[in-house]
From TrEMBL:
GO terms for cellular component: cytosol. This is Rrf2 family transcriptional regulator. It comes from Candidatus Gallitreponema excrementavium. InterPro entries: Tscrpt_reg_Rrf2, WH-like_DNA-bd_sf, WH_DNA-bd_sf. GO terms for molecular function: DNA binding; DNA-binding transcription factor activity. PANTHER family: HTH-TYPE TRANSCRIPTIONAL REGULATOR ISCR, WINGED HELIX-TURN-HELIX TRANSCRIPTIONAL REGULATOR, RRF2 FAMILY. Pfam families: Rrf2. Keywords: DNA-binding.
Amino acid sequence: MKISTRGRYALRLMIDLGENAGSGFVSLKDVSMRQGISVKYLEQIASLLCRAGFLVSLRGACGGYKLAFPPEEYKISMILGVTEESLKPVQCISLDAPVCSRSAECKTLPLWKGLYERVNQYLDSYTLKDLLDGNFTG
């Protein structure tokens, strides 16, 4: 499992919007300057997050993006779930994977399932507010 650049940048975008929530809608140009991420890439990420209902957008001169909910309502797993194809360490535990002929006797399957469960538990245990407040024990 490897978190993509899109996933890492989505977290940075959400953190930036959380940090600048007091100024209303935030332009991607401003986020781009602060975060060192191209506006084009931020537009792609913001579009995904808007479709998921995580961001609100406003067009026009005073437009931009803002969080749809308070930061404590966003689990990190939710944000990464929008941007990542999968957080599963191996394909055989995916719901859409073909049934493996060796799954009944596979000695490693429980290992991969356990790893996936722990990754999800870990990412579920932190919210965007935790990252904003620095409440992150690692």
